[in-house]
Design a protein that fits this description.
This protein is an alpha+beta fold and 94 residues long. Helix content is 35%, strand content 23%.
Length: 94
Amino acid sequence: MIAESYERIHRSNLLMMGILPLQFLPGESLESLGLTGREEFSVTGLENGDAREVTVTADEVEFGATLRLDTPREREYVRHGGILPYVLRRLLAE
């Protein structure tokens, strides 16, 4: 999901479901980039959740975005695909 900003709890809820919270770079938005939301999006440069900035391609438009994983724990959740797979793997490892 990509947005101009996030409230902490909404960003956290997305992470728990395994959804990457991406944030437009300052001064950019759907409107400034000419996007409608109907484009097919792809994200590169994730580096297993350790990246701070990624490249987003929306059909023919390419732009940078901030990957909003603010803590090591959040990066770990994303590596596992969300909190449920994370917890299940930890339980199975015991």
